[in-house]
């Protein structure tokens, strides 16, 4: 049984059968998302994109439930999220849930509980969608924190949802160490995200 059941939907709000069929037919080597009822397909990310996501996942290791760090989070790489009434089907680069909201990770192909934190690694082919439709969807679903990591610009931008609007917290660039909300319990080496 899914610990986070899908929301009830009216038939006219659902994605069309054609869009759902096209979503299911996308080959494994690509990333498929349904945003506002439209299918979006991207190739697998470039190596610098993957490096930034991998290094950030490693940097956030102390927030996993075991070990000597602060713990308290479930952090997943490229989880499939089904959010909203259609539903929109999103694949953020990283997403995190506080353990208080997700005590156990359900064994399901897609999660319907909105994350507390999302990180999108920016690439030229996805930047408009990440900063446009997906940013609005994360706001609609009440995601508290959103980060954009841009490997080309070597920059991390952080936003927090305040009164249903995104508030820009800060921007860090280059080779520095910083405490980034909501993971300010530790210092993160920003430069390691770009190190090759």
From TrEMBL:
Domain Putative restriction endonuclease: 23-189
Nuclease listed as a keyword: yes
InterPro entries documented for this protein: Nuclease_put_TT1808 (IPR012296), Restrct_endonuc-II-like (IPR011335), Uma2 (IPR008538)
Protein name: Uma2 family endonuclease
GO-annotated molecular function: endonuclease activity
Record flagged with keyword NADP: no
Native organism: Polyangium sorediatum
Keywords: Endonuclease, Hydrolase, Nuclease
């Amino acid at each position: 049984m899914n610990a986070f059941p899908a929301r009830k939907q009216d038939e006219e709000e659902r994605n069309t059968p054609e869009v759902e069929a096209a979503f299911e037919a996308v080959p494994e080597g690509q990333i498929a998302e349904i945003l506002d009822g439209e299918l979006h397909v991207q190739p697998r990310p470039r190596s610098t994109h993957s490096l930034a996501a991998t290094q950030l996942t490693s940097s956030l290791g102390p927030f996993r439930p075991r070990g000597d760090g602060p713990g308290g989070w479930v952090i997943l790489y490229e989880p499939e999220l089904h959010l909203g009434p259609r539903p929109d089907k999103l694949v953020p680069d990283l997403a995190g849930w506080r353990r208080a909201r997700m005590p156990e990770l359900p064994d399901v192909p897609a999660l319907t509980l909105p994350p507390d934190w999302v990180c999108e690694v920016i690439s030229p082919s996805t930047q408009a969608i990440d900063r446009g439709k997906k940013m609005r969807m994360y706001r609609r679903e009440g995601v508290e924190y959103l980060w954009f990591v841009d490997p080309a610009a070597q920059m991390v931008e952080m936003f927090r949802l305040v009164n249903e609007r995104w508030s820009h917290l800060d921007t860090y660039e280059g080779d520095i160490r910083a405490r980034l909300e909501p993971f300010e319990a530790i210092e993160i080496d920003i430069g390691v995200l770009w190190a090759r």
